[in-house]
Amino acid sequence: MNAMPHVAAFHELHGALASFSEDSDSHADNLSPLFDRFAAPDVSVRFVGQEFMLARDLKGLQAVKEYFQGTFLPAFYGALDTTKPVHSEPPIFMGSHDSEWSAVEMRGSATTKNGKPWVNEVVLVVRSNKAGKWVEVKVYMDTLHLQTHLLQAK
């Protein structure tokens, strides 16, 4: 089993998310080819959270892409002040070549549209198939922090 292709995938994901602009469609355009390349058609993605406005259980690559383009990215990037710097730290990887599971920790900071500091931390736990494609992704975020900023941005 080779879970380490996630390293390359998440470096590319990090780069796509770090190329900040107010246009969430451009982020979706950047992410769509990455999803096509790294995720299995039957991928399952779970945004973990209780009473969290962005919590979801998604089944299938098309559902994941539609959620990112139509819901997650517009909410996420819509809360940020595009005139201020956005910083994204290099991802930290955990995993081994002999496990189908790996994890990545990502952290970024920015300023919200109402001038408050934003520090977003997320851990993704990923299971890959024998071909190295993602078949299961669990996304763990600071849901209260994220939801507070998203609601204040409305």
Keywords:
alpha+beta; 154 residues; seven-stranded mixed beta sheet; globular; 7 strands; Nuclear Transport Factor 2, Chain: A; 4 helices
Helix and strand layout, with pairings?
Blueprint: H1 5-18, H2 24-38, E1 39-47, E2 56-59, H3 61-78, E3 87-88, E4 92-95, E5 101-111, E6 117-128, E7 134-141, H4 143-153
Parallel strand pairs: 1-7
Antiparallel strand pairs: 1-2, 3-5, 4-5, 5-6, 6-7
Helix pairs in contact: 1-2, 2-3
Protein name: SnoaL-like domain-containing protein
InterPro entries: NTF2-like_dom_sf
Organism: Chaetomium fimeti
Descriptive notes:
Helices cover 38% and strands 32% of the residues. By secondary structure, the protein is of the alpha+beta class. The chain has one domain: Nuclear Transport Factor 2, Chain: A (Roll). Strands 1, 2, 3, 4, 5, 6 and 7 form a 7-stranded mixed beta sheet that branches. The longest helix is centred in the middle third of the chain and has 18 residues, at 61-78. The termini are far apart. This is SnoaL-like domain-containing protein. InterPro entries: NTF2-like_dom_sf (IPR032710).
Compute the number of structural domains.
Answer: 1
Query: What average pLDDT do the residues reach?
Result: 82
What level of helicity do the residues show? 25-40%
Regarding CATH, which class? Answer: Alpha Beta
* CATH architecture descriptor: Roll
Show unreliable segments. none
First and last CA, distance? 45 Å
Given the C-alpha coordinates, what overall shape results?
globular
The count of strands amounts to 7
Structure annotation, total helices: 4
The largest pleated sheet is described as: 7 strands, mixed
* H/E series: HHEEHEEEEEH
Structural class: alpha+beta
Question: β content, as a range?
Answer: 25-35%
